[in-house]
Write a structure and sequence with these properties.
RNA binding; RBD_domain_sf; 4-stranded antiparallel sheet; RNA-binding; about 290 residues; 10 helices; elongated; RRM domain-containing protein; single chain; alpha+beta; Alpha-Beta Plaits
């Protein structure tokens, strides 16, 4: 724009015909020179125009002008964010918590094999108390061997599991035991089912826990199976539901020796499936009549 103004200054004789040419004498003015006034006015105009912003809204056509995008105010929190969790989300959270607890329990558990059939859970737990606090001890029958195996869970992973490996080769009964890190956790027992007195602990010593029982097998079949192989049965509880494909049973014998013999029945066919037998952690309590419960 300044160049246009300068060109206009050089060609003022063409743009303003009322003014004289350079060859003609300038018109007389008593006060000032018209040419210098014009140049001063143009110079002021150039200075004024040079201070303007050519990108301003008033100099850009409305069709090409784009207004700056205004930042929207922050959205308010949706009411859905404060809704209670759904049953599906609670189920997923519970599964994650249970998986984490199970993995922690596995790290604190060891697998002990080649256990003599005459060794009780109390004797086995006493062997590992020097390695750390024993939370649970579960002896199971091995269908492929006359010996048994067990899972021992410690309160502390470092003290228990690392120290228990030193018990490898210790003779317990007539056989040296083997100790390895466990790949599974001990299934916890409902505390309300645990023995509450010395009498109930004595009942547990005479009771075995049986799993993988064929659903076609009746309670009379289970009683006859164990009485034929082990001894007299004083109380039996056969349980099952529509979710699991097999059933479980608690068998209480008259003598504790019969319960030890029953552990050797693990792997024997009961119906169409091999039964699994292990010492019971809970006694078989007599059923409470419904009339007394109400």
């Amino acid at each position: 724009m300044a160049a246009v103004a300068e060109n206009s200054i050089g060609s003022d004789d063409r743009q303003f015909p009322h003014r004289g040419t350079p060859s003609s004498p300038p018109p007389s003015s008593p006060s000032s020179d018209p040419a210098s006034d014009f140049r001063n006015g143009v110079r002021d105009l150039v200075n004024l125009l040079s201070k303007l912003n050519p990108s301003a809204e008033e100099f850009v056509p409305s069709s090409k002008f784009t207004s700056p995008r205004r930042r929207s105010p922050p959205l308010a929190r949706s009411p859905m964010e404060f809704c209670p969790p759904t049953p599906q989300s609670l189920k997923k959270i519970n599964e994650r918590v249970l998986n984490a607890q199970r993995e922690d329990s596995i790290r604190r558990t060891v697998y002990v094999s080649d256990i003599d059939t005459n060794v009780t859970e109390e004797q086995l737990a006493a062997l590992f108390t020097s390695c750390g606090q024993v939370l649970d001890c579960r002896v199971c029958g091995d269908p492929h061997s006359i010996l048994r195996f067990a899972f021992i869970e410690f309160a502390d992973e470092r003290k228990g599991c690392e120290g228990s490996t030193e018990s490898w080769g210790t003779v317990l009964g007539y056989y040296p035991v083997r100790v390895l890190p466990s790949k599974t956790a001990i299934l916890p027992v409902n505390p309300t089912f645990l023995p509450r007195s010395e009498d109930e602990r004595e009942m547990c010593a005479r009771t075995v826990y049986c799993t993988n029982i064929d659903k076609k097998v009746t309670q009379a079949d289970v009683k006859a199976f164990f009485e034929t192989c082990c001894g007299e049965v004083s109380r039996l509880r056969l349980l099952g539901d529509h979710v699991h494909s097999t059933r479980i049973a608690f068998v209480e014998f008259v003598l504790a020796e019969s319960a030890l013999i029953a552990l050797n029945c693990s792997g024997m066919l009961l119906g169409a499936l091999p039964v699994r037998v292990s010492p019971s952690k809970t006694p078989v309590r007599p059923r409470v009549p419904r009339a007394m419960m109400t």
